């Protein structure tokens, strides 16, 4: 089984000769179509409906002169999110294999960069465990003129890294393998790595990371992975939940809930993909980027933490463990407390944290929590612009009492079932004192049904929104 290469999503050599692809919206026929192309398309029933493809014949000797691809009509609200994030990704599976294509025209108002990113992401396949396909391969497109090729390829590579990590089963991606992935990224980007593992976590005052992961097998020992990237400027620290598999601990999950728990390290995958994008685009030189990943397996053994245990965190706050399946916030809390000690300008956590977030917003729209109204508005706008939508939810102060059990400072799993995503975010915020600004992303990290450019499986969420927003978020921190 080969190791996936996140850099496989690249445009074709710009010197390649590609066949033209005209992307057509209903009623908008490009002016430069070959003679007879429109008549041929209309005779074939092509109207520009989303996903329609019409191949254009290449004369008496056969072959192709190009193709038309339907973009579809806009919805009734121009400000609404499109039903399909990457419509052009459909072309990857509808156009002939083995042929290189170039974008000849695209409907007015369509962002060519986002369309091109979708075209590249349409090439993504997680094929680590399958035999190579026989026959012609899907050919990469030529980057359209005027599109920042390096940026789009960096975004695609970062997305591929996150997807590959999430898609890999826990048998091949435990805490040690997640550490190896971080070391590979560090080597690529010139970053340094420090790892604290096993019983040394206690000596390093990271007791909750140790408590969650101590029941795992010795070769899957818990650890904190700490990456620092070369650069100067505002401090930006990313913290990603790295629970490589979650049984639920002694509060064991039912089989129906355990089936997707290889993806419980989706926050770690997201911050590693984001860090790679920042480094590949040369943006890390202007910030002090740090990435912290508490990597554990929440296993069941004689020394597993128990319901009712009270843990003392790095920050000194005590936590009553009322559900061992609410372990993600425990490992994040120690990592956030460590991060906050450096007083970063921005502290951002990303985690597959709560089912409540999915009940509220579904799998495709992750909630974001941020106290700064202006910064939240920047993040929301960036998510829309980057085809990486997020939705703001509140740190609702009146719910603080719900995470205060009385017997300890904090409760990791308040009873009642109300506002689970908010109470989890409030819990994490208790450990961020010292950071100038804090944002938390409660992502799902999984595409439950295939969509164009987003096959069923692991998916990156929130990273492009943060990448796009970061220059404006940091503008006031420079100098």
Q: Please, could you describe this protein's structure?
A:
The protein has 479 residues and is α/β, with parallel strands linked by helices. It contains 14 helices and 18 strands. Strands 5, 6, 7, 8, 9, 12, 13, 14 and 16 form a 9-stranded mixed β-sheet that branches. A 4-stranded mixed β-sheet has the order 2-3-1-4, covered by helices on one side. A 3-stranded mixed β-sheet has the order 10-11-15, covered by helices on one side. The radius of gyration is 24 Å and the shape is elongated. One of its GO terms (molecular function) is manganese ion binding. Residues 323-330 form the Cytosol aminopeptidase domain.
Name some characteristics of this structure.
18% strand, alpha/beta, elongated, Leucine Aminopeptidase, subunit E, domain 1, 2 domains, 479 residues, Aminopeptidase, 14 helices, 29% helix, 9-stranded mixed beta sheet
What's the rounded overall pLDDT mean? 94
| Radius of gyration computed on alpha carbons | 24 Å
What number of domains?
A: 2
Describe the sheet with the most strands.
9 strands, mixed
- Uncertain residue ranges: none
Span of the ends, CA to CA: 49 Å
Given the helix and strand composition, which structural class is it? alpha/beta
The CATH topology of the largest domain, please? Answer: Aminopeptidase
Number of strands: 18
Label the CATH architecture of the largest domain: 3-Layer(aba) Sandwich
| CATH top level label of the largest domain | Alpha Beta
The number of helical runs is 14
Summarize the structure.
By secondary structure, this protein is an alpha/beta fold. Helices cover 29% and strands 18% of the residues.
